[in-house]
Amino acid sequence: MSEQTRALPLESALALVLLLCAAQALSAVPPHIALSVDLDPAERRLAIVAELSSPGEFLIALHPSLQIRAASADGRPVAVALATRDERRMWRVVTPKGARLRIDYDGTLPELDTKLDHRGVLQGMPPMASARGSFLPAGSGWYPTMPELFTYNVKLSLPAGQRGLVAGTLVSEKLPASASDHYLAQFDFAQPTAGIDLMAGPYVVREKLVAREGATPLRMRTYFYGDLAALADGYLEDSARYIELYSREIGAYPYDSFSVVASPLPTGFGMPTLTYLGAQVLKLPFIRAT
Q1: How do residues 9-27 score in pLDDT, each as one tens digit?
Q2: Residues spanned by the domain of 235
Q3: Is this model's pTM higher than 0.85 or not?
């Protein structure tokens, strides 16, 4: 038997090991975070319960406006130590690895800065709230930052006159029955991601369901201010048309929804399942055609 012949089984074994390692990496379950969010934009009050599987020692970076009130692991209270770094409050929690970690925190957010221009919104912004609109960017420290890509679900509670969303599948929605009731919604995002952006405002929501071959209907939505409501149908139709066009050109649209959300700031952001565009920009007649 030649040297080359004897080497083949070893090469095959190494190839098999590499394939198994790659398959294991692909099948590894990413960390998951569940957020129950209660936001009162007019009062700028934010209260959140975050639940996740603890990595053991966890440094939680939160915006300075937010304060951890309690933490527990598998239902048992755990100590939280506070430190400060890079204008963030860093909270250190140590628990058994894999324990179900629950963190309760709240605070009063900074007021929405309406003086920001189109350059200013590209800088690091804090989580901001007002009755006119709220924007909690992914990198602003409004939820515990994960050290790697993660999946999430967010339960959102807002006062009756407000609507809000994060990127993801709308799992459930409950409209307020009265002015004293709350708007409730849950969003799930099953693809590994690096962050969560939250948007809210006194939106009028319009919806269009678009049938898709071999897939669930595509939920198209606009979250517009009242003075933009007349533009909603056109944005829904054009968004559906563009998704169909590019699905033919580059492959099937990988999500089950797409929303156009009006921003009180001069933003032009794109996130999975939505775009967040300045209200003034949405009024421009050529935007829908570009």
Answers
A1: 545 444 444 554 444 444 5
A2: 203-290
A3: yes
